[in-house]
Automatic annotation (TrEMBL):
Gene Ontology molecular functions: NADP binding; oxidoreductase activity; proton-translocating NAD(P)+ transhydrogenase activity
EC code(s) of this entry: 7.1.1.1
Keywords associated with the record: NAD, NADP, Nucleotide-binding, Oxidoreductase, Translocase
One Pfam entry name: AlaDh_PNT_C
Organism from which the protein derives: Novosphingobium marinum
Protein name listed in UniProt: proton-translocating NAD(P)(+) transhydrogenase
Length: 373
């Protein structure tokens, strides 16, 4: 098997889909690996390190030549695939709902596109889950960016000149990113509270030493759909949540929002009126900004000031931690390929459960039921 590792073309994408560590391991499986020149530079990996790991470091025109598997962080531009074998796999975060046209072009090119973000949330696939590995780092970075933008300190400090009070941090959405945001804010010494629609998160919030803020006494608030993901909530729930959040948010210094619903725009959690109720100098980091945002008025990669409150959010948060994000992403892809590597066939062979979940295109057609349905 020939595996090609492409340099990312999307603006602002600093990550890379393989590291020298995973290149070595892929070669250990029996594959040969081509890495595009400069692919790792923005993630602090030089061409020489890839070469030392055993990769052929080649130009953009040659990298996909005879490839059976093309690896990317994001879905490659179809021109980057020239020379790949018919039916070659494209293994990457393909943003299937956001970049549908590109998926169609993979189908017409005859490729088998595998969307790593569609990995099912089952125990054996945990080590292959790019959403988890990248969200974890994003939750951490969101808190650091908010702390950096905040004109005050996070921890309580007693000094000869008087006491600095601890910042109050509120985390909305307690999935993988939210849990890491809570942990990071605690480490920085903030007073932390958090909320989610999934009632199962209450205990997780408490176990991190933060205070759960939950809607009580509303019917049907389990909030959990398939695969542990959130569902769209009832109007009654949304109203109760908005009231609760309004009174709590006015007392907060920092809010980190992370709420997502798969395949839908991000739920709106904070309105302009709620922003106006916050103290001037407060900071809101909207991690959901690439999916439409949880916060009214937040704009990706811009600092927006509303009613004296600073709104921030990145279009690509893990790209701000390129080296670690790449290391984890690359291991996710390696874990995936190695789990399915068939020694006799000398190539990976997917099983039905995972194959059907992540396969978007095959034999010239879009085949994934989440895209067809
Ligand atoms: P996500 O990124 O899809 O969403 C982030 C959080 O926002 C979720 O906790 C969600 O419940 C919450 N949310 C959605 N709408 C909201 C609203 N209106 N108000 C407040 N919060 C709202 O979620 P995620 O980080 O991918 O994690 C979801 C769950 O899946 C977690 O329980 C996680 O532990 C689990 N998980 C399992 C596996 C696995 O078993 N392989 C892998 C990753 C995550």
């Amino acid at each position: 098997q020939r595996i090609a590792v492409l340099k990312e073309r999307t603006a602002g994408e600093t990550r890379v889909a393989a590291t020298p560590e995973t290149v070595k391991k892929l070669i250990g499986l029996g594959a040969s690996v081509a890495v595009e020149q400069g692919a790792g530079l923005t993630a602090s990996v030089s061409d020489a390190e890839y070469a030392a790991a055993g990769a052929d470091v080649v130009s953009a025109d040659a990298v996909a030549k005879d490839a059976d598997i093309v690896m990317g962080v994001q879905g490659p531009d179809p021109v980057q695939l020239s020379g790949a074998k018919p039916g070659a796999w494209i293994v990457a975060g393909l943003d299937p709902f956001g970049r549908r046209e590109r998926i169609d072009s993979y189908a017409s090119g005859g490729y088998e596109a595998l969307a790593m973000e569609f990995m099912p949330r089952i125990t054996r696939a945990q080590s292959m889950d790019i959403l988890s590995s990248q969200s974890n780092l994003s939750g951490y970075k969101a808190v650091l960016a908010a702390a950096d933008t905040y004109g005050r300190a996070f921890p309580m400090m007693m000094t000869a000149a008087g006491t600095v009070t601890a910042a109050k941090v509120f985390v909305m959405g307690v999935g993988v990113a939210g849990l890491q945001a809570i942990a990071t804010a605690k480490r920085l010494g903030a007073q932390v509270s958090a909320t989610d629609v999934r009632s199962a998160t209450r205990e997780q919030i408490q176990s991190l030493g933060a205070k759960p803020i939950f809607v009580e006494n509303v019917e049907g608030i389990e909030g959990e759909g398939s695969g542990g993901y959130a569902t769209e909530m009832s109007d009654e729930y949304k109203k109760a949540q908005a009231e609760l959040v309004s009174s709590h948010i006015a007392k907060q210094d920092i809010v980190i929002t992370t709420a997502l619903i798969p395949g839908r725009p991000a739920p709106r959690l904070i309105t302009d009126a709620q922003i106006a109720s916050m103290k001037p100098g407060s900071v809101i980091f909207d991690l959901a900004v690439p999916q439409g945002g949880n916060v009214e008025g937040s704009v990706a990669d811009e600092l927006v000031e509303k009613h004296g409150v600073k709104l921030i959010g990145f279009s690509n948060t893990p790209a701000h931690l390129a080296a670690d994000a790449s290391a984890l992403f690359a291991r996710n892809l390696f874990n995936f390929l190695s789990a399915f590597w068939d020694k006799e066939a000398g190539k990976p062979i997917l099983d039905e459960e995972i194959g059907d979940a992540i396969r978007l295109t095959k034999d010239g057609k879009v085949v994934n039921e989440r895209l067809l349905g």
